[in-house]
Design a protein that fits this description.
- By secondary structure, the chain is an all-alpha fold.
- 74% of the residues lie in helices and 0% in strands.
- Helix 8 runs antiparallel to helix 9.
- The radius of gyration is 20 Å and the shape is elongated.
Length: 205
């Protein structure tokens, strides 16, 4: 009985997060109320507050659904051990993120909310700080790959791993923004993997 209760509670929590995603997508985060999320989820407002103290906590849970697996995959894919070609490994990681966006509606919707449908002010300013911290962590991982590539003689002599890591991260964030906005898929989505390939090849010795 206890197990069933916990399972039901988790199902309700996931249902609320999914409902929040749909309302955030339709109305924008700032214009969304907990009452509207409750109506979309088919639960009472009290049920939402049992799982989430406020909208910021619910927003963060929605974000973590997508970003925690991404960070886990980053940790797995950007390991330095036994990597013969760090530049190829980096390209595979970036293109893998694009593939996830292409294959997962939930991921696409979440990215659209984060990049287009949210103003990071008031309570959500703290979430922006969390996102910036994650960006710094990703940049550090990319720098490690570039450092390994330099040690293997794969980079042009004038290129700094730290500068290249920042440049690659900013390039990819910009590409993701345009990918999300290109809903017809005729400007950026259809050539995103080639753009990544070109970006990495420009660094290669």
């Amino acid at each position: 009985m206890v197990r069933n209760t916990k399972e039901n509670a988790e199902l309700t929590r996931l249902k609320i997060i999914d409902a929040a995603r749909q309302v955030f997508l339709a109305r924008g985060v700032s214009r969304t109320s907990m009452e509207q999320i409750a109506a979309e989820a088919g639960v009472t407002r009290g049920a939402i507050y049992w799982h989430f103290a406020h909208k910021k906590e619910l927003f963060s849970a929605m974000r973590e659904q997508v970003f925690l697996p991404l960070i886990d995959r980053m940790d797995e894919n950007l390991q330095l051990e036994n990597i013969e070609d760090p530049l190829d490994q980096l390209m595979q990681f970036l293109n893998g993120t694009l593939e996830t966006l292409n294959d997962s509606l939930e991921t696409r919707q979440t990215y659209e909310i984060l990049m287009i449908k949210c103003e990071y002010v008031d309570d959500l300013a703290e979430v922006l700080d969390q996102m910036l911290n994650n960006c710094a962590r990703i940049t550090e991982k990319i720098e490690q790959l570039y450092t390994r590539a330099k040690e293997k003689g794969l980079l042009k002599a004038s290129q700094s791993p730290a500068e290249l890591a920042t440049d690659t991260h900013l390039f990819f964030i910009g590409l993701l923004h345009m990918w999300v906005k290109d809903t017809q898929g005729c400007r950026f989505r259809n050539q995103a993997t080639e753009l990544v390939k070109t970006h990495i090849s420009l660094r290669r010795q």
